[in-house]
Amino acid sequence: MTFVFRESGGKPITLGDLVLLIDLLGSDRFIYGADWPWAYEYPYSTVDSIRNDLKTIGDLPISEEEKNNILGGTLERLIRLE
């Protein structure tokens, strides 16, 4: 599943729906990806856009373990399986 936080970036998902999906599917099925260097959202720079995404994830009403999964833990576990 791929989605964006911002309405300008394609088909958006609400943060409430994101939290519901994390609860239903488990945070180990989510990986944050920034599409850098193409994650440019005017008037923000790529770095500002990614910083904003990280703040959004950090502010979600989910556990720290779930946030860690989304921000790299899941990907790290998948890479180790290879």
The percentage helix is 40-55%
Task: State the distance separating the first and last CA atoms.
Answer: 21 Å
Low-confidence stretches: none
Order of helices and strands: HHH
Number of H/I helices: 3
Shape call: globular
Please give the number of β-strands.
0
Number of domains: 1
Q: Over all CA atoms, what is the radius of gyration?
A: 13 Å
Summed over residues and divided by their number, the pLDDT gives a mean of 82
Let me know the largest β-sheet. Answer: none
Q: Roughly what fraction of the amino acids lie in strands?
A: under 5%
Sheet/helix structural class:
mainly alpha
What does this structure look like?
The protein is an all-alpha fold. The protein has one domain (7-81). It has three helices and no strands. It has helices at 15-25, 46-58, 64-81. The longest helix has 18 residues, at 64-81. The model has no long low-confidence stretch (mean pLDDT 82).
